[in-house]
Amino acid sequence: MFETILNVISALAIPLIIVLIPLYGYRKGLKVYEVFTVGAKEGFDVALRIIPYLVAIFAAISIFRTSGAMQVLSWIMSPLTSLIGMPGDVLPLAFMRPLSGSGALGILSELVKTHGPDSTIGRMASIMMGSTETTFYVLAVYFGSVSVTNSRHAVPAALTADLAGIISAVVLTNVIFG
Amino acid sequence: MINVIWLAMILIGVTIASADCLLDFVDGSILWSPTMEPLVNLTSGVFDSVKFAVTLAIGLVGIMSLWLGLMKIAEKSGLINIVAKAVKPVMIRLFPEVPPDHPAMGSIVMAIAASVLGLGNSATPLGLKAMQELQTLNKVKDTASNAMCMLMAMSTSSVTLIPATIIGIRAAANSTNASEIIAPVILATGISTTVAIIMTKILEKLPRFRYPDTGEESSLPENQQNPSQENA
Predict the structure, then answer these.
(1) CA B167, chain centre distance (Å)
(2) Which residues in chain A touch residue B158, judged by CB atoms under 8 angstroms apart?
(3) Which residue, among B14, B9, B72, B70, has the nearest Cα to B43 in the 3D structure?
(4) Quick one: angle between helices A32-66 and A2-27, nearest 10?
(5) Do B173 and A43 touch (CB under 8 A)?
(6) Which of A104, A112, A124 is nearest to A165 (CA)?
(7) B74 to each of A19, A74, B67, B69, how far by Cα in Å?
(8) CB atoms < 10 A from the CB of B42, how many?
(9) Phi, psi dihedrals of residue B25, rounded to the nearest 5°
């Protein structure tokens, strides 16, 4: 039931927003078409402005991934993660997730395929994927769009939150499905 | 911070790929086997991914323009202010530096709502819009303000109601109950959002992350633009 409601909301959300905002503007006497295009023009600027930051972050992530540094890191960390009940197979996902959305999605599909979606590993990986974000991408894009280079405490705060999401995913999987 | 992480990723990656060119690690023993393949793969990987970075940015133009256009209507019609007013009590605690009636508040609410509803690639344009509003309040333009860091932390950890992509992958793999992960995901993201907020509030007070004293407004970097100045 809850699930059906959520699915309906997610399907309706965008069409509803696209209708309601211009309708409201029109009733307030706005020239909605003209105002829309003024705002839309900014879209191009923003996209262009984030390119250098995206190139920088994607280059570093690519080097880190293709070199096998990711596997080395997972291997070093594995004694620690087994302590909190995380199987070694899920560890690369935990490391990939903040770096690359498509990379993490690849690992998730692989894990779900090999171990089955209803296995502990399959469930843990799915929950972990849903509970975390591609932090470095979001960071590059968000701060890049306003040319902020000194990100202060944003990285440690966001990564701690990711870590909390990862640990919660492991614990919740073991508690609920264990 | 980002400087060190960026450089370390490149250095560690190139070092490991170079070692991989010379040595092979098989069952705990190290074998001498010179080959250029790991470095060649690394190079083509970098070229591919920077190309993808540009494709991704250009691909954002369409959806970005759609949302920024709608947001402009919402802003001019006063809709955003209504939204912002509704969640004012929470927002002034999370973003104390932002004046409660500033357009940034509405944009932040819209951005967070988009990521909670799982609107995926719609969350990015709305988040960027909010960042730009916050930049108009930022006194040191190349440094993130407390509010910007809070928005970043909340966006990357935000509560997720429907992890649609993941449910799709599970369903495609013939899961008996593909959406059984919804409740744990809501719970886990609730925890991570709480941690994000607490950590941001604690870290922003630490001396090493201190916001520089103002008085630098006149010496902005030359590439500073102020994209939302027409909101003033």
Answers:
(1) 23
(2) 133
(3) B14
(4) 140
(5) no
(6) A124
(7) 12, 46, 10, 9
(8) 24
(9) -105, 110
Q: Give the whole-angstrom CA distance, residue B182 versus residue A151.
A: 32
The two three-digit tokens of residue B88, written as one number: 């004012």
User: DSSP secondary structure string, B16-79?
Assistant: HHHHHHHEEEETTEEEE---SHHHHHHHHHHHHHHHHHHHHHHHHHHHHHHHHHHHHHHHHTTH
Beta bridge partners of A141: none
Check if the beta carbon of residue B48 is closer than 8 Å to that of residue A62. yes
* Whether B136 contacts B104, CB under 8 Å: yes
- The residue length of chain B stands at 232
Q: Given an 8 Å threshold on Cβ–Cβ distance, is B49 in contact with A62?
A: yes
**What residue of B is the nearest CA neighbor of A168?**
B188
Three-state DSSP class for A152?
coil
A3-17, A57-71, A138-152, B132-146, range with the lowest pLDDT: A3-17
Q: Which residues pair with B25 in a beta bridge?
A: B30
What whole-number distance in Å separates Cα of residue B21 and Cα of residue B40?
10
What six digits make up the tokens of A18? 């696209």
Per-residue pLDDT reduced to its tens digit, B185-230:
999 999 999 999 999 999 999 998 999 876 544 444 444 444 444 4
CA B224 to chain centre: 21
pTM: 0.81
User: Are B221 and A147 within 8 A, CB to CB?
Assistant: yes
Question: Side chain identity at A128, as an amino acid letter?
Answer: M
Of the candidates B22, B14, B15, B125, the residue with the CA atom closest to the CA atom of residue A59 = B14
Give the number of other CB atoms < 10 A from CB of residue A62.
Answer: 27
Amino acid at B11: L
A13, two tokens: 């959300």
Upper half-sphere CA count for residue A39 (Cβ side, 13 Å): 27
Range name among A158-162, B7-11, B157-161 with the lowest pLDDT average: B157-161
Q: Could you identify the residue written with the tokens 């009733």?
A: A27
Residue of B143, B157, B221 lying closest to A152 (CB–CB): B143
Structure tokens at B206: 């630490």
pLDDT digits (tens, 9 = 90+) for A30-49: 999 999 999 899 888 888 88
- The answer to whether B160 touches A126, Cβ cutoff 8 Å, is no
